[in-house]
């Protein structure tokens, strides 16, 4: 049993849909009557209410007329393995468009905040000039909280692996890259270690106890070892993959190129500024946390 004292302070608010098609997706809003909104996007494997600092954020921004909104997205929990950053951005745009249509928020500001890999979602959202400048989907600000490089994490794990494991990891990544280059990015990657994935299939009986090897982990393996497409494998692990936005070895041009079509932070900032409302202060992107 979990000790309830270890859980974060509960968040109170309203739960409602921001889209009904192609599938219903809800969002949680701590103060739906407030005019301004901080839309929070968590990292890989997270979902609504997972981050322990959210209650403090909600309390702090309330005094400035901001509510905290957490949209449920298709990529949350284990869904990221078959998702894309652009798909995330499209769902976020649906949420922001919905918020801007509400009477209580018609004249309010909307700031998008990403945590960890959620920061890639923020940048990807802003890479679209149309999203950044459209009246319904524009942002008044963006925050990157603890941005991380999944590619560098993968490389760190690779460097710690045995020569045999390293060779296996290299083969898997090269296979994913080849599939992406052939236009087969939606192909599911083979399971490299299916024997380590826990799948509870037998009903637990107190008289009999758990079968050998069973635990009370539920379906956690579906989140921590999800099915992965070749595209998402490439995006997360390969240099210049679509998720590779915060690696420490990026060149200056890979960061500062702001020309149309560039997949860079600078392009995102340019688009953020292009969506400015003359009646409101200039938009800005804030970075919280830095690499050691």
TrEMBL record:
Q: Which domain of life is it from?
A: Eukaryota
Q: Which organism is it from?
A: Melanopsichium pennsylvanicum 4
Q: Name one Pfam family in it.
A: DUF1749
Q: Quote the InterPro entries the UniProt record gives.
A: AB_hydrolase_fold, SidJ
**Full protein name:** DUF1749-domain-containing protein
Q: Which Gene3D superfamilies match?
A: alpha/beta hydrolase
């Amino acid at each position: 049993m979990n000790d309830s004292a270890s859980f974060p302070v509960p968040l109170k608010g309203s739960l409602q849909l921001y889209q009904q098609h192609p599938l219903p997706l809800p969002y949680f809003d701590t103060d739906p009557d407030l005019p301004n909104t901080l839309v929070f996007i968590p990292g890989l494997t997270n979902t609504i209410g997972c981050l322990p600092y959210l209650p403090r954020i909600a309390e702090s921004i309330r005094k400035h007329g901001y509510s905290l909104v957490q949209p449920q997205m298709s990529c949350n929990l284990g869904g990221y393995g078959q998702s894309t950053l652009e798909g995330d951005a499209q769902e976020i745009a649906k949420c922001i468009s919905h918020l801007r249509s509400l009477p209580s928020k018609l004249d309010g500001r909307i700031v998008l905040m990403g945590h960890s890999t959620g920061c890639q979602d923020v940048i990807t959202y802003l890479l679209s000039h149309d999203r950044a400048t459209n009246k319904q989907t524009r942002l008044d600000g963006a925050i990157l909280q603890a941005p991380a490089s999944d590619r560098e994490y993968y490389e760190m794990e690779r460097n710690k692996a045995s020569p045999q494991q390293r060779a296996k990891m290299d083969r898997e990544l090269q296979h994913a890259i080849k599939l992406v280059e052939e236009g087969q990015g939606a192909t599911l990657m083979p399971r490299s270690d299916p024997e380590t994935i826990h799948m509870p299939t037998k009903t637990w009986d107190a008289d009999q106890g758990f079968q050998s090897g069973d635990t009370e982990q539920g379906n956690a393996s579906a989140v921590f070892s999800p099915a992965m497409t070749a595209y998402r494998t490439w995006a997360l692990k390969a240099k210049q993959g679509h998720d590779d936005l915060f690696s420490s070895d990026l060149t200056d041009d890979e960061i500062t190129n702001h020309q149309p079509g560039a997949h860079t932070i600078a392009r995102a900032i340019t688009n953020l500024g292009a969506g400015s409302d003359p009646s409101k202060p200039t938009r800005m992107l804030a970075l919280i946390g830095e690499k050691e």
